[in-house]
């Protein structure tokens, strides 16, 4: 016997009973299924995963060796959309939009003339915006470095 369930009320329950060769699926979307086959590999597959799938999952198994209980915490990482623009007042704007977790933004050359804002979205993603003022500088270019668990991106802007 193998049972997967998400730890919340009325969430998905997926089970397989080998003595009856019986599978059950209760409150599960089509995206949630067995990775291959519950007979050979009772791993859970969620594809495509989305933010709503985040949470704690439990796998219960029972066989000749005994009963086993596993807890798995699923955290969804969302790659931010990264842009580098500038405005008329000679401020470079590096934006890492709708990432989870929030991306880190840094500049080359490093400057004390930069500032940052953060916007939290209802779905749990974060937009970070960093501003680099080059109005009184002689730099030929500026580079925005965005660091995130899903990606690292480097964007270059010519300032001449």
Question: What tags apply to this protein structure?
Answer:
CD80_C2-set; rod-shaped; 160 residues; membrane; mainly beta; 2 domains
Question: What is the topology?
Answer:
Blueprint lengths: L1 E5 L6 E5 L4 E5 L5 E3 L9 E3 L8 E9 L2 E9 L6 E6 L4 E9 L4 E5 L5 E7 L5 E8 L7 E8 L2 E8 L2
Antiparallel strand pairs: 1-2, 1-6, 2-3, 4-5, 6-7, 8-9, 9-12, 10-13, 11-12, 13-14
GO cellular component, one term: external side of plasma membrane
Organism: Struthidea cinerea
Protein name: MOR1A protein
Number of strands: 14
What is the rounded Rg? Answer: 24 Å
Strand content: over 45%
Q: Give the CATH topology of the largest domain.
A: Immunoglobulin-like
Query: How much helicity do the residues have?
Result: under 10%
Main sheet record = 5 strands, antiparallel
Structural class: mainly beta
Low-confidence region ranges: none
Q: Note the run of SSEs as H and E.
A: EEEEEEEEEEEEEE
Domain Ig-like: 1-75
GO cellular component, one term: external side of plasma membrane
Keywords: Disulfide bond, Glycoprotein, Membrane, Receptor, Transmembrane, Transmembrane helix
Organism: Struthidea cinerea
